[in-house]
Design a protein that fits this description.
Elements lengths: L1 E7 L2 E6 L12 E4 L6 H7 L5 H33 L5 H22 L5 H25 L3 H13 L1 H11 L9 H27 L3 H12 L1 H5 L11 H5 L6 H22 L1 H7 L9 H20 L5 H21 L2 H13 L1 H15 L5 H25 L2 H61 L5
Antiparallel strand pairs: 1-2, 2-3
Helix pairs in contact: 2-3, 2-7, 2-8, 3-5, 3-6, 3-17, 4-5, 4-6, 4-8, 6-17, 7-8, 7-13, 7-16, 11-14, 11-16, 11-17, 11-18, 13-15, 13-16, 14-15, 14-16, 14-18, 16-17
Amino acid sequence: MRTILRTHAPAHYVAQGGSAPPGPRTSRLVPVLPRHVPPLRRFLLVPRLPAGPLLRWFASYGSFAMPQAAAPIAFALIALPLTGDAASGAAMMLAMTSAQVIGAVPITRAGRRFSPIPFLRVLIGLRTLALVAIAVLATLGAPFALVVAGAALAGLVNGAAYGTLRSTLNHLVPASRLPRALGVAATVNEVTFVSSPVLAAALGSLSPQAAIWAMVLLGAGPMLLLPRLATACPPGPEQRREHLRLTPMIMLWLVCGGASAAAISAIEIGAVSLAVSFGLPAAWGAVFPVALCVTSIGGGVWVSVRNRVPRRRTVLAWLAITALGVASVGLGHSVTATLVGALLVGSVLAPLATYYSLVLDQLVPAVHRAEVFAQLRTANALGIITSSALISLVSLQATYAVVIALMTVVLAAAGSVFTVGWVRARRRSIAREAAARRTLDAVDRAGGEHSAGSSSALPRE
């Protein structure tokens, strides 16, 4: 029952949980805001999410992403004294990403018999040990193959750890606040991906091993920061035996996630080559990824303030903007066009990532959330591998042509799915309206016959 307690324009507050006056232990004030309230004002009026556990989760989320964000720079610095070529760090990145793809689903399924938080701490502990091994092997001047094997071990648990970490967010916020929480998480993630390479480069200028040790210390943060969740319990034996069925809808959004990751990585990985092709120093290549990340931070803030699930046509517009941005980068042949394309892609990065997470959250039962988010992480990794392989094997222009074609395909597929869904919903609405009209007509006819019968039964004068 909802009882209006007091009015404080432009929102009135209601007590949830009973008809008695609100007490400190029985109920809490929840604002019901009119539709005309602007998004920023709405954000300021709505009470904040639970500060302690949720802030610890956000800190864990940002700390968890640090090793992957700093790895390209740190691995290049580690590989240089061992092989004489900084480009050998790409082999470590490939080993880490490939191992993540291989281990994501099996490890996630194996962890369903355990409570999520302890299992997640174990996974992050294993990754931390692998990073420590890389630092020690690099210090000792061990064969480069052993260092690559250490990178593979560090990446093996990444997908499962991400899926488990994301699934725990549902225990901290209600479904109505999930868009806002995911928007904040996307913002934290982008800040991490902007700052971590800078930190790794600064520490690497002192010592190559210092960058790895920073990854060890900061990447281990979730082991201490993760909140305790009394509601996060392992599923029962029958639920553990069930496997996630990849329906066409789930596959659609996984492919969309992979396509978006391919578009982003094509810009980030090809940034130096683009700068050189324009006659600029190689260092200017950092401008394009930074522009992408800055606008993605703004997109995350916008999602957090708005706190709404986007409409279908809005999602299609975001996919179209991503394709247009990649086309501007690949076909513009100028610094201005490339910068505009990076800004366009970055502006919808966080909103799209939030939507993928939200829609997959709704498509699977709670017991399969960790696995489907691990699959999303795997799809993103496959998108990155695709762009990396294309840039390495073919020309940069061919890479962008492939990514543009991929974005066009997923845009057409999503548009078709949305259109079919709209047509079916419209037909159901028309059928319900027709049934309601038939019911009203039947009631009217029955009322008319009853009135006629009553009139004929009256005695004549």
